Amino acid sequence: MEEEPELPPFSESFLPAKGVGSSTALAFSSTSEVFSLSGLGCVFKAILAHSNDTILVIDQMAQIQFAGGSMAVLGYAAADLIGCSLFQLFPDETSLEEQAAFLQPCPLEQSRITESMALRRADGSTVLVAAVTSNYLVDNQQQGLLVSFRDITRQKAAEAKAIFLEHYDPLTGLQNRGGFTSQVAQAITVASNRSRLFCVMAIGLDRFRRINDLYGTETGDLALVAVARQLQQAMRADDVVSRFRGDKFFSLCLDIRSHENVKAIIAKVQSSLDFSPPGTKEDTRLSASIGIAFYPNDGLDAPGLIRSAETAMYMAKESGRDSYRLYDANMNEALLDRQRVEAELNTAIRQEQFEPYFQPKVDRQGYLLGAEALIRWRLPSGQIRPPSYFISLAEANGFIDQIGAIMLRKTCQAVAGLHKRKLMNVPVSINLSPRQFAQPLLVDDIRQAMAEADLPPEMIELEITESGIMENQTEGISKLNQLKALGVLVSIDDFGTGYSSFSKLKDYPVDIIKMDKSFVDPLPHDRRATIIASAIVDLAHTLSFSVVAEGVETMEQLRFLDTIFCDSYQGYLFSKPLSLIDFEGLLILGRPLPAVSYQ
Hints:
Elements: E1 14-16, E2 26-28, H1 31-36, H2 42-50, E3 54-59, E4 64-69, H3 78-81, H4 96-102, E5 111-120, E6 126-138, E7 141-151, H5 153-167, H6 177-194, E8 198-205, H7 209-215, H8 217-234, E9 240-245, E10 248-253, H9 259-272, E11 274-275, E12 284-285, E13 288-295, H10 302-318, E14 324-326, H11 331-351, E15 354-362, E16 368-378, E17 384-385, H12 391-397, H13 400-420, E18 428-432, H14 434-438, H15 442-453, E19 460-465, H16 466-470, H17 473-486, E20 489-495, H18 501-504, E21 512-515, H19 517-520, H20 527-542, E22 546-549, H21 555-563, E23 568-569, H22 580-589
Helix pairs in contact: 6-10, 7-8, 10-11, 13-15
């Protein structure tokens, strides 16, 4: 360890100088006296040993006469600094004016504080320091300076980070709500002075939770970063893109001359969103619902304009997603309705107000082959709300997971009760939403629900949409195999409505194909519909799958489906969805349903 130069013993020759905080600063009676005295007082030795600052004594020629304290700040040994000029520690870019200002005299028994300055360390790097400079006097004539340097690099980095986080999103580097709101406020000032039109876009990614569910939140974060970059590329040079929270982005589009300008930007945004999860060869197209609010029609201040754009975005989501809506004042009432339903849904989930209704599946003679459990929301008043009232909102807000878990458990309990009473020995199908299907613990949850109800697995059929499987085809097929291993039946719901259905069907470990209602509705008069329906049945039978036709409502539809050897039928022609009590009554009667009269 390098030896520090000796200081004189503590005496009246050393007088404390008034400093700031914990910085160390001493006043001496004269420079010559300091270095003519011998010995190191234990008090001063302790002060130097415990100081986090580098302490220098500098003469009138800016030569360093003493160096002590923490030498880690500058990285020099104390002895190496003795006799050097203080200015050797200043970076090359330090101006002569800055050097001269640093050595300006400070008042007697007072210290001058330099809040931030740069010094050159021994290894050539630069360190930010705060300096406290004190003079020591003899006969009121300045003899020298005592300076302490404190490393404030971390402090400045923390301050810079705090300033950044105040205005920017740390994940994407885009402006956050605070920074974006300030930008909108500035745009309002400019637009009001120059009579210019601009708009705010609220951009909400559709079903983004699926990426987190399928690939994890780290991959979800990568997707958000990719979207941020794509949005910046889609916007014009002067437009501002921001991320507020989660999967919601905002854009400030300046100097809009017509709605056609806005439509062009929206088209570019919608066509640019995609993401390839790491480790996969899949290129996932992302969609967004977009709301637009114009200044000054839709808001006169920044918060109001942003709120209007967000309201329009929610309306776009409710109208089918992957679309855009322009704000109008009537949306406020619609948003209030949405918020009211959200609050009611929270209560319904907490109180488990959801229950299964059962729609029979029958053969050509009307005999029961199974049933589908369909969700209904029963209010405390007894009023029944259909799924069309709340499902889209539940999916958008993530409530669908909890609702699906309630339906799984209640359906298993109801079917187990019917089975134990020997009223029913055919399976009941339960719908799994794509979000449910993506849950890592899905198989365990189903196993537990059946075990708690003491329900044989052959009494359950799980309906999964093809889109749910195709979100991640490899993992989806693996999960289908796990479900089959439980002993349950598996069916593909809404078959033929998306993706490359026919080519992929051979890869699916399933038992049943449900022909979507959109193919049944035009039968038998639409020639294309008859060809597609026939092809679905033929292909399914070739692969040893059975086929259920959904939404059968007319005798003509039933007759045609019978001619192409469809296996079973479901629809209002036979029965509407029934409450558990009514379904139980149907089972007790044990009669075929009456639509067989067409023979």
